[in-house]
Structure formats: C-alpha cells, structure tokens
Design brief:
54% helix
C-alpha cells in the first residue's frame, strides 16, 4: 500500500520578496511563518503580488492505473454502468471525472468511428416513440437477412461513446466499423469520392459553427483528425470534378504562351502549376479583397510556378470578381442537404446556422427558397412546414 512519508509531501509559501522582502509588513510576518512551521528558506518563494500570501501543499503518490488488476476492474465497472444508470455513484454526472486509464487503440478508434458515423448519417438522434425520450441510434443492414435494423446507443452522444468503448458491446462496434469502411470502399469513381469528400467537409464546417470558439475548440480537433484520417485512408480528395472545371480561357492562354518552347513533360508540370496557382488565387479572393501580404505571397508563388504575368492577371480577374454564384449555391445546398439527411427536419439550431451561412454567402431569400425546394425534391421530401 501507499506509505505516508515526509518526502512524498512538499509545502511552499509564496510571499512578496521571498526570503528578502522589501515590504515592512512582510518583514514582520516572515518570522511568524518560520516559527510556526517547519519551512526552510528554500520553501519560501518570491511572489509578485504584494497583497496576498500563497500556501501550497503537494502530496505525491502514484498513478492509479499502476494498481494491478485496475484494467479488469474498469471493464467490470463499464459492464455494470451499461445495465444501471447510476451504479453506486455519489455524483449524478460521472463524466465529470476523467478516465485514469489511458485510452487503448480500440477505444480511440471507436470514438473516431462515432464522429464519422455522425458525418455519414449512420448515427442520428431521434425520439423513441415508445418511451417518448430522445436517443442516439445506429442504422445498419443485417448481413444475414438484408433487413434494415437500428440499435440504440444511449440517450446522447457522450452516452453513445461510453456504449461503444465498452467491451461487451464489441459486436455493435464491429458493425459500425464495417458500415463506415464499406461507404469509403464503395466510393470508386472520381465523382463518388468527390461527393463523399464534400459531405464530410460540410459536416466539419457544421461542427466549426456549432462549437464555441470554432477551430480553436479542442473538440474540433477530434472531429478534424477523424475525418482527415478517413479521407487519407480512402483517397477521397481527388480535386475538382472535370464537369466543374471546363477548359477556361485562362488555362488556354497559359498553354498557348508556353507550349512553343517546352517539352511535353514540362507542359504537364506547367499545367499542374497553373492549377495550383489558381487555387491560391481563389483562396485569397474568397472572402473579398486580399491583404498586401497575401498579394506579395501570390506574386512569390507566381514566380516560383513560372506563370506568366498575363496568365496570372487572367486568373486573378476570374476569381477577383467575387465568389462563383454556382459554387455559392452549391455550398448552401450542401449544408441544407446534410441537415435534412440527419432526421428529415430542420430544427431551430440548424436554421440559425443556415441563416448565418446565407448572410455570409450573400444569397437572397428567393434564392434560398429555390435551393431548399430543389434539395427536398432530390431527397423525396415534401415542402418545408
């Protein structure tokens, strides 16, 4: 067991000036502190605050995870917690205490799969018509019968995460893993990969809007990591679709001005550089006029990629006039579709996000009505209530 030894304890005092105070009041208090305690000079530290004295005591022990059999006890506890809402808890919300055991690879994978399942609409939150309470459900197809089935994972997403990491629910965890991987493996054509990629990016954008602090929120990084690894695993980022990027005068001008003096290999490289430079220009002008620093960076990349000034001016003219209207409409429709695919309805929070996006993209109410009607028709849904 743990022995209460003196070397396992440390006591410090923070006071203005430390052992060499300049304040007369501190000079009078310091002898009293020394007399009434076992503190030595090395335990008295200088403090910049002249109005407070800090007493700090630390007790050293050892991590609970080092206790033999702790992992097995945690497994048993999780089994009990799945069958009893509050097994022997002195606190109503047990999640306020962090897990003292480091998460295993299986547990980390289960948490990431829950994020991906939300993005892919495999897991949704719906009302149980029998109990009247909301619950998180997994929808999947039974391999033996081909029937569509649902599995309740908990009352909310934190409870669903606890459910999936529990060893006794390994079968459900495997079903979810298979469903997620099947979606990625079925995306073979470029258009299929692009569609799946856009869906994941729309969900990530939704998380950025919902989470306090956006990308600065630590939870956002969890969503970003899960989606990033999935995109890399299945090679979903394949660039713009051919139909969305027809040959433009900009690209033709670049080719005409360079093909007479370059080899075929160099022409391929130049085409790639034109595409890279176009993406940089599009990014710079996406939110309006770029700053002087951004313009300087663009010029630097123009020279690095060997783009002529004339071709660069044409590319800038294309994107500098503002965001492409079709792209703007597509972006709004993508988020609206993602919300509808979750539960077929737009709730208050989702409507607020759509209004924010409408204002950001500069779309009119008539345009929004048309977009929403088209999306609902594609999904086979009736008119919005």
């Amino acid at each position: 067991g743990w022995e209460n030894k003196a070397e396992k304890r440390q006591t410090l005092v923070g006071i203005q000036g430390g052992t060499k105070p300049t304040d007369p009041a501190v000079k009078e208090i310091l002898p009293i502190i020394r007399k009434t305690s076992t503190l030595t000079d090395k335990d008295i530290r200088p403090l910049g605050d002249p109005h407070h004295i800090y007493f700090v005591q630390e007790v050293g022990a050892f991590p609970l995870r080092l206790i033999e059999g702790m992992e097995q006890m945690r497994t048993l506890y999780r089994s009990v917690s799945q069958s009893d809402q509050n097994p022997l808890h002195t606190h109503q919300d047990s999640r306020q205490f962090q897990d003292h055991m480091p998460a295993t690879q299986v547990e980390e994978k289960a948490k990431q799969n829950l994020i991906l399942a939300q993005a892919l609409a495999l897991v949704t939150q719906a009302e149980n018509t029998v109990t009247g309470y909301s619950e998180v459900r997994l929808s999947y197809q039974d391999k033996l019968t081909g029937m569509e089935r649902t599995q309740s994972l908990g009352a909310d997403y934190p409870a669903a995460e606890d459910y999936l990491v529990s060893d006794q629910n390994r079968r459900v965890r495997d079903i979810l893993e298979d469903a997620i991987q099947n979606i990625g493996q079925k995306a073979i054509a470029k258009s299929e990969k692009q569609g799946l990629y856009q869906k994941l990016m729309a969900y990530l954008k939704q998380r950025e809007i919902i989470l306090p602090g956006g990308k600065d929120n630590p939870d956002y990084r969890k969503y970003e990591t899960a989606i990033e690894e999935y995109v890399k695993t299945h090679g979903l980022f394949v660039g713009p679709l051919p139909a969305e990027t027809p040959a433009t005068p900009v690209q033709q001008a670049a080719k005409i001005s360079t093909t007479s003096a370059v080899t075929p290999a160099e022409a391929v490289t130049l085409d790639s550089n034109v595409e890279k430079f176009s993406k940089l220009v599009e990014t710079c002008y996406r939110r309006g006029k770029p700053s002087d620093t951004e313009l300087q960076l663009l010029e630097r990349f123009r020279q690095r990629y060997g783009i002529s000034q004339a071709a660069a001016d044409q590319i800038t003219a294309k994107f500098g006039s503002g965001p492409d209207q079709q792209q703007v409409i597509y972006e709004f429709g993508l988020m609206y579709r993602a919300f509808l695919e979750n539960d077929g309805e737009i709730d208050f929070e989702e409507q607020a996000q759509l209004l924010d996006l409408q204002e950001e993209l500069g779309l009119t109410n008539d345009q929004i009505s048309t977009i929403e009607a088209n999306v609902r028709e594609e999904l086979g849904l009736g008119e919005a209530k």
